[in-house]
Amino acid sequence: MQKLIINGKKTLRGVIKVSGSKNATLPILAASILNSESLLKNVPLVKDTFTMVELLKSIGLKCAFTKKNQLKIFNNERNIKTVAPYKLVKTMRAGVLVLGPLVSKYQRAKVSLPGGCAIGTRPVDLHLFALKKLGAKIKIKNGYIYATATKGLKGNTIKFPSISVGATENAILSAVCAKGKTIIYNCAIEPEINNLIEFLRKMGSKINLKKRTITIEGNIYNKKISHKIIPDRIELGTYLIAGALTGKNLIIKNIQTNIIRKEIEILKKIGVKMKISKNSIQVTSSENLKKFNISTEPYPGFPTDLQAQIMILMTQAKGRSTMKEKIFENRYMHVPELRRMGAKIKIKNNVAYIDGPTPLSGAEVMATDLRASVSLVLAGLIADNRTSVNRIYHLDRGYQDIEKKLKACKADIKRL
Fold this sequence. Notes:
The protein is α/β, with parallel strands linked by helices. The protein contains 14 helices and 24 strands.
């Protein structure tokens, strides 16, 4: 099993280019089932992308990388299998996103209940709630979701009882082929959802997003389309925090600052030094960091996917900071590992109390999920001595070439 070895206390300097967004790529890959020919650009080369591509191939689509980050997808409608097997969905929750396109286009689907990170229950109830509203018949048997709509899906009003990114995406992917109009209330509005909507508009779908309401009218058409995946805002936030912790002149490129306004606002209040331009951010090591209190929220609030990373910054801020996790009920599994490195963190209910500034010491640690794993890398960058991060297959699900990017900026990090 692979691991990362990090010798800390090195100053980061250089340029990091942010890869395409994993969380935008996966629903767009699912949406490609609905089209005849799609060319996707700025595709991140991470494990979740490759798993989803294998899932599309198993369904019957043809997929090929024409350049390093460009993927061509063809659906010639021959030998289509409306099944998403357990072996491909078990490691990646986004696999459930093929459910909507398959039922919408082919009137049936058999999709394994999903896996992914162990950060909470994250049931698919809201996904099925949306499909039922559109007329699908659902049953769950032997670990699989069976969905049918023998006469096709019909537009309807969907009002989510709570905000869910995945359920919003599946509702959109189901509604674009449904007959008539669909209105989705209380939907998620993450930038990745906007990127999905842009892709579907290129196929002819009429989609309007206003506040937390999405209006969709069916009638998409098979077209030859090209689409660029947005930069990964979570990767950007991760490297901004790395630069704040130990950077001298770290420049981060291939970004969109308009989709991380909340994160930039919070980092500035903490005392992180940044120079922001249209397509890049320069960040330097920041002393005298101020204590701060954050709650994770649906976009445009602070993202749960940056909670573990910014907790490392909290360990270096003066005073007691707090982190309230409001999205997932089990997303503090990195905390015991950080305590082993010397972090002073207490958990009560869903609130973490972090005292700082606290020096960290290198240790043998274990990654438990995607974002927890990268927080351990950040901790290793500022720790004394050597840190060994085990089970980094979690890390490879969402970060392209992380050790190569950090090593190019003078970090002492290697993969074994």
